Amino acid sequence: MISTGRNAALAGRPEGLEQLRGLLDTVLGTLGDAALKRGGPLAPGGPQAAVAAVDEVLGGGRFLADEPSAQRVTELFEAYAAWAVDLTHPSAAARMQCAPTAASAAAELLAATLNQSLHAWESGPFALELERRLIQEMASLVGFGAEAGGTLTPGGSISNLMALLFSRDRALKDTGEVSATGLAGRQVRPRVLCSAAAHFSVARAAGFLGLGRSAVVKVPVDDRGRMIADEARRIVEGFDADEVPVAIVATAGTTDHGSFDPLPELADLAAEYGTWLHVDAAYGIGALFSPKLAPLLDGLGRADSVAFDLHKFGWTPASSSVVVVRDRRHMECLDEQAVYLNPSDDEALGFTALLGTSLQTTRRSDALKMAATFLTVGREGMGDWVEACHDQARYAASVIAATDSLELVADPLLTTVIFRCVPEEGTSVADENAWNAAVRRKLMADGRALLARTKITGPDGTPSVHLKLVFLNPTTTEDDIDTLLTDITAAARETAGQGATQY
């Protein structure tokens, strides 16, 4: 029985641990029941049903009710599980969002119960050292040496922001310490190069950092979304005297094609102009675990910074993002001496925290769940899982290419597959873009399958709606994929005559 109100138990106390055992039984039972009842990757009913489910749990009231209720907590757990996306279901192929290992999920519970933080030594001494060791290993994994540094972040967008912060301060240091004096009055125009297929967080980070979104120069890409190195060189060589190339941002694993920018050529260009090279490997880092796929990341160790997410392709719960820098001295702009957190005499005697490595102060111990997955699966196992997902994508692509009512864009590079539905012989569809969008929505509303959508520009230069599968579940079988594609073609037939007009 859960104690409520003023008698609610704290998780770490004996009475709290006893309640936690009972709650765990409830949660595990709820998870099992939800999977059985759900039937597919998501409960059917679409947005209206999801809204109604939340309304039912709240009973028309508020979270901060006048009368706390243990029963409502149980009902909340049940509804949450029932309406959660089941990432272990083979037809959940919409997002770069992996199912975590059991060990990492248990690590989340341990971390939450003990609630350690990384901003002061006395807030989590073991957690602090665990993150330091993890950062060292992750830096070594990408090819950096002993002088490297880094931190864990809430996600790839923040990791990219931090990398551009370091590059901004280095590039503009000759005109004064930017973090101290700001950008006002500087007679330069900062420029950040990234591909036209780069993640939107690059431009947003430039805005946050005072460089301005207009400072971002989009480099043309080839037909697979890879930055064209010669175009990047042409742009840099054409800069005016007051234009300063702050950073070249390469993408390793674009969100659509899963493409990898040419890292060796971009590293050469960055070295020639003394420009920071940042690699956004949020998704593509998975290739590094596989001996077969690792060549996609050749040149990664020549970057100045690398960002990647283990909650995308590392089987850990979100958030599990990492940013590492080749030379940790570039992180000195984050240094902060707060007498109530990290007094200098404490630090001199080893009572050091990680306040000076992060944009955050209070920060949870995310290293624990990453360590749990690594220790459970191992380097070879991680590679096997990555290659299994790659093989799934290749199989799906082969089936799509052989199906008259589906049209494949290109063979997959990593684990994403882009395609679209095309009308069967004798079937007329007024607007194929709206139709493809409607197929996806129907599958979601029915709870049958979850897939993503994007726009791909064809040979005639016209962008059109396409569908996308993302394979991150190593347990998915070829039979599962056949079932998924059968559901997609069935939904296409069911919606073909409905005259969809919105997309």
From TrEMBL:
<protein>
    <submittedName>
        <fullName>Pyridoxal-dependent decarboxylase</fullName>
    </submittedName>
</protein>
<comment type="similarity">
    <text>Belongs to the group II decarboxylase family.</text>
</comment>
<keyword id="KW-0456">Lyase</keyword>
<keyword id="KW-0663">Pyridoxal phosphate</keyword>
<dbReference type="Pfam" id="PF00282">
    <property type="entry name" value="Pyridoxal_deC"/>
</dbReference>
<dbReference type="InterPro" id="IPR002129">
    <property type="entry name" value="PyrdxlP-dep_de-COase"/>
</dbReference>
<dbReference type="InterPro" id="IPR015424">
    <property type="entry name" value="PyrdxlP-dep_Trfase"/>
</dbReference>
<dbReference type="InterPro" id="IPR015422">
    <property type="entry name" value="PyrdxlP-dep_Trfase_small"/>
</dbReference>
<dbReference type="InterPro" id="IPR015421">
    <property type="entry name" value="PyrdxlP-dep_Trfase_major"/>
</dbReference>
<keyword id="KW-0210">Decarboxylase</keyword>
